[in-house]
Amino acid sequence: MSAPPAPPPTAAPPTRPPTGLGDRIRANGSLLTTAVVWGSFFPLIDHLLQTWDTLTLAAARLGFAALGLLTALVLREGWRALSGPLPWRRIWLAGGCGLGGFTFLITVGIGASGAVPAAVISTSSPVIALILAWALGHVPLRRAALIGVAFAVSGGLVVVFAPGRAFEGMRGGEVFVLLAAIAWVWQSLMSQQWLVGLSQLRVAALLSAAGALNLVAVASILALTGMTSPMVDVSPGSLAILAYLALVGGSLGNFLWYFGVSRLGVTIASMYNNLIPVFAVLVALLLGTELIWTQLAGGALILMGVIWAQRGR
Predict the structure, then answer these.
(1) How far apart are alpha carbons 313 and 269 in whole angstroms?
(2) What does the alpha-carbon distance between residue 17 and residue 145 come to, in Å, rounded to a whole number?
(3) Going by C-beta distance under 8 Å and a sequence separation of 6 or more, which residues neighbour residue 50?
(4) Closest by alpha carbon to 91, among 213, 207, 214, 254?
């Protein structure tokens, strides 16, 4: 008689981020690239919401991102990467609820508050990450991390409140952006704890697929029952923007994010989110917006915070 199968492993502690210089350079480069890619996220989502309904746009964006990641995963690791003993319940919690919830909440928040107020709230990510990581027992509150977060948040606020920028004030949707930030940080922490041992490409693909399935299921049920009226724009321009947000912002961005988190931890990784307004400004420059020197100063503060928080690692 063969031995009974081993029970599924309990929650393992997250892997300790490597301290090698090469790993840190690659991780910081990945997160910087993510910030560049996500810099256009807020204005493009705000633009698409003029012709898409919130839930359908969220489901479509994450759905196409999941398809891109799953395709890359199968090409790199084979079909076996989608089978075998996997913690499906935890994948559903982190991906279906965490990542799917983030995608819906951030879309609602941008639509209800506007791109600039949403960018203001996004500067809270490092603080949320630091508090959640400490509360869950993942990291101690190191002095270097606290100082680094202070620099990063200050830099983000300098960027979004730079003199000369149009700011219309809060409009009520900011609470959804804050909830989205909490969901994003939580699933980032849990993915590295619950899915330890899996490649970061596999983590990104599985969580994105779970989130997309949840959103598609909810959107379909609400539409079939008449509770929502889907609105979709299939014009070439709209589909091109959606493809960019899904395949570049979602597929590539999510993979690079999980890779960076696995090496540096979610607190330091979240500081890069404060660079998103900086690159949003640079994208706006291509559309004729005038550059303000305080925006460059804010970007420098954020990078200083990221570097400072890694002291002694």
Answers:
(1) 14
(2) 15
(3) none
(4) 207
Neighbouring C-beta atoms of residue 291, cutoff 10 Å: 13
Crossing angle between the packed helical segments 253-264 and 174-194, to the nearest 10 degrees: 60
> What predicted TM-score, i.e. pTM, was given to this entire model?
0.76
Task: State the Cα–Cα distance between residues 216 and 207, nearest whole angstrom.
Answer: 14
Q: Identify the CA nearest to 149 among candidates 36, 262, 267, 263.
A: 267
Q: pLDDT tens, 190-221?
A: 998 899 889 999 999 999 999 999 999 999 99
Identify residue 34 by its one-letter amino acid code: T
Q: Rounded to the nearest 10 degrees, how much is the dihedral formed by the CA atoms of 68, 24, 306, 129?
A: 60
The residues near 234 (Cβ < 8 Å, ≥ 6 apart) are: none
Helices (H), the chain: 21-38, 41-48, 54-77, 88-91, 100-113, 115-122, 125-135, 143-160, 174-194, 200-224, 236-243, 253-264, 266-271, 276-286, 293-309
Q: Please report where in the chains the tokens 């090496």 appear, as a residue.
A: 263
Cβ pair 298, 151 in contact under 8 A: no
Where are the domains positioned within the chain?
Answer: 44-309
Instruction: Give the whole-angstrom CA distance, residue 46 versus residue 107.
Output: 8
pLDDT of res. 172: 60
Spell out the residues 6+ positions from residue 303 whose beta carbon is closer than 8 angstroms to its own.
155, 275
- 289-292 contacts, C-beta under 8 A, 24 or more apart: 290/164, 292/162, 292/163, 292/164, 292/165
| Per-residue pLDDT reduced to its tens digit, 6-49 | 444 444 444 444 457 788 888 999 998 988 888 778 778 888 99
Q: Per residue in 222-242, pLDDT tens?
A: 999 988 889 999 999 999 999
DSSP letter, residue 95:
I
